[in-house]
Amino acid sequence: MNCQPWREWIAEAALGSLDSSCRPKLDRHLAACAHCRRAFEAEQKLLAAVDDGLRASLTGTPSSEFVPRVRMRIAQESETARAWWLMPLGRIRVTAAVAALAALVLAVGLLHRASPPAKASASRIAGPAVSSVALNEVAGVATPAGSALTPARPADSAHDSARRMRRRQRAADDQAPQCEVLVEPGQWRAIVAAYRAAQSERVDADLTPDRALASEKPVEVTPIEIDPIAVAELYPAGPPQSPGR
Amino acid sequence: MLEGRVDAWVETLPEAAVSLSASQQPAEQTFEREFERQLADCSALAYRVALGVLHSPADAEEVAQEAFVRAYRHFPRLREPDRFRAWLVRVTWRLAIDRQRSAARRDRRELAVKANEYPPLTVEEAALGREFQSRLEQALDSLPEKLRRVVILAAIEGYGMSETAALLELPQGTVRSRLHRARKLLAEKLR
Q1: Tell me: the pLDDT tens digits for B126-137?
Q2: A29 band by pLDDT with thresholds 50, 70 and 90
Q3: How far does A55 lie from chain B, in Å, by closest CA?
Q4: Is the domain of B92 the same as that of B7?
Q5: Is the domain of B140 the same as that of B110?
Q6: Which of residues 9-28 of A touch B (CB under 8 A)?
Q7: B136·A77 Cβ contact <8 A
Q8: What is the pLDDT of residues A146-192, one digit of tens each?
Q9: Smallest CA–CA distance from B55 into chain A, residue
C-alpha cells in the first residue's frame, strides 16, 4: 500500500491541527495500516518529547544571588552615572573639548605670528644670576607719558584710548631697534632709568647708572693692621736647625 | 502683635521642611518597592527566556541581570505590570540573542582549536536523554527567530497561548499558527 499521501495528515494529526473533516478518514486508514499507525504513534511520541524537553529546559530558576546582584549592579550604575565624564560618551565630550581648546590655542598662536614682528619680551635666559631685560619693553612703559601730549577726547572711552595706545606702541616697537641686554640682579632698575633718560634725550647727573647705583649700599672694607711676628717670641731657644744640615 | 506672627511663622518652617521631604520620600520608596516587586515576580521569567536561547544557566542569569538593570533605568514608564513584563521579555530576548551570536562567532573562531576538547557523552548521560536534549537545543536554535520566541514562551510553565500573545503583543491566532509551525519544524529536524 502506498502510504506516502497519508504522511502529511499523520503529522498534522499528531500536532492536533488536522481538519476535523479529514480525521475520520485518517482514523479508518490507521485502523487498517499498521505501518502508518506506528508512524502516527512515533510522531506523537516525538512531539511529546519536544514539548517535555522544552519544558524541562525552561523550568529552572535563577540562583539566590540573582536579586542581590541586580541590586548591586543598579547601585554601581548609579555611582558611575554621577561620574559622567568617566562614561564613554562623557570621555568623548571631554576629549572633544580639549581638542577644541588646543585648536583654538593653535589658531591664536598662528594669528599672532602672522601679525607684525613680535616684540622681544623679558625672560630669564641665563639662570638665576643674570636677568634679561628687553629695552623695548622699557620703552613701552615710558610711552604713556608721551601719550599725555595728545590727550584723549573726552568722548572717547577708556577702551578706545587703550586700543590707540596699544596701536601706537606696536608702531613704536616696529621702528625701534631690537636689542637685549643681560644685567646683574639688582642693577636693572638703574639700566632702565638710564635707557629712559637716553630715549627722552634728558640725561642729567641724577639719572646716570652710577648715580642710581650709588643708592645701593657699598661694601665696606676695613683695613686691618697686622704686626710682624717676632721669631724670637716663637722660638725662645733659637730657631730649629734643618735635619739635612 | 507682628513679632508674635513672625515667631509663629518661623516655628512652622521646620515642619514645612519635614513635610516636604516626607512627601518626596514616599514617592522614592514607592518606586523602589514597585521595582522590587517586579524583580521578585519576573526574575524567573527573564531567566527562563534567556535560558531558552542560551541553554546555559550562568549565561542566562547574567543576561537576565542586565535586562533588569536596563528595566530599572526605564522603570518610570514601565510601571504597569503587563507592560513591564512584555518589555522585559523583549529586552531579555534581544540581549540573549546578541550574546548567542557573539558566542557563536567566538566558537567558530575557536572551533579548530577546541574541536577535540569536548568530552564525549557518557552512557548514563545518553540514557538520561542528554543527546536528545542537545539535538533539541540545536533544532531550536535553527528556528526562525519569531517562531523560536513563540515556542520558548509557550513552553515556559504558566504561559499559555493567551499569556504568550499578551507578552509578545500579538493576536492569539498569530501565536497559534507560529507555534504550530515551530513544533512541526522541530519534529522534522528531530525525526
Answers
A1: 555 778 888 899
A2: very high
A3: 5
A4: yes
A5: no
A6: 11, 14-15, 17
A7: no
A8: 444 444 444 456 667 777 777 877 777 666 655 566 666 667 777 77
A9: A57
Tell me whether residues B43 and A53 touch, CB distance under 8 A: no
CATH number of the domain that residue B104 is part of: 1.10.1740.10
Interface of A with B in 183-242 (CB under 8 A): none
Task: Say how far apart CA B69 and CA B92 lie, in whole Å.
Answer: 11
* ipTM attached to this prediction: 0.72
Q: Torsion over CA of A74, A75, A77 and A82, rounded to 10 degrees?
A: 140
Which residue in chain A is spatially nearest to B65 when comparing CA positions?
A: A70
Place of cell 522590587: B36
Instruction: Tell me whether B123 touches chain A (CB under 8 Å).
Output: no
- Kindly identify which residue of chain A lies nearest to residue B150, measuring between CA atoms: A54
Q: Is residue B122 pLDDT above 70, yes or no? A: no
pLDDT for A118: 47
The proportion of chain B whose per-residue pLDDT surpasses 70, expressed as a percent, equals: 75
List pLDDT tens digits, range A83-136. 555 555 556 677 788 888 888 888 888 887 776 554 444 444 444 444 444 444
Q: Are A182 and A130 in contact (CB under 8 A)?
A: yes
Chain A residues near residue B132 by CB distance under 8 angstroms:
49, 53
Whole-angstrom distance, CA of residue A44 vs CA of residue A46: 5
Angle at A12 between CA A8 and CA A13, to 5 degrees: 115
Same domain as B127, residue B112:
no
| pLDDT tens, position by position, B157-181 | 878 889 999 989 899 999 999 999 9
Q: Mark whether B11 and B84 lie in a shared domain.
A: yes
Q: Indicate if B83 and B165 belong to the same structural domain.
A: no
Question: Quick check: A57 and B57 CB within 8 A?
Answer: no
C-alpha to C-alpha distance for A47 and A41, rounded to whole angstroms: 10
What is the span of the domain harbouring residue B43?
2-116
Residues B10, B86, single domain; the answer is yes
Distance from CA of B160 to the nearest CA of A (A): 12
> Is pLDDT at B185 greater than 60 in this prediction?
yes
Interatomic CA distance for residues A55 and A57, integer angstroms: 5
Number of domains in chain B: 2
CATH number at residue B133: 1.10.10.10
The answer to whether residues B132 and B94 belong to one domain is no
> In angstroms, what separates the C-alpha of B133 from chain A's closest C-alpha?
6
Residue B39 backbone class (left: φ over 0; alpha: ψ -120 to 50; beta: rest): alpha
Asked whether the beta carbons of residue A57 and residue B44 sit closer than 8 angstroms, the reply is: no
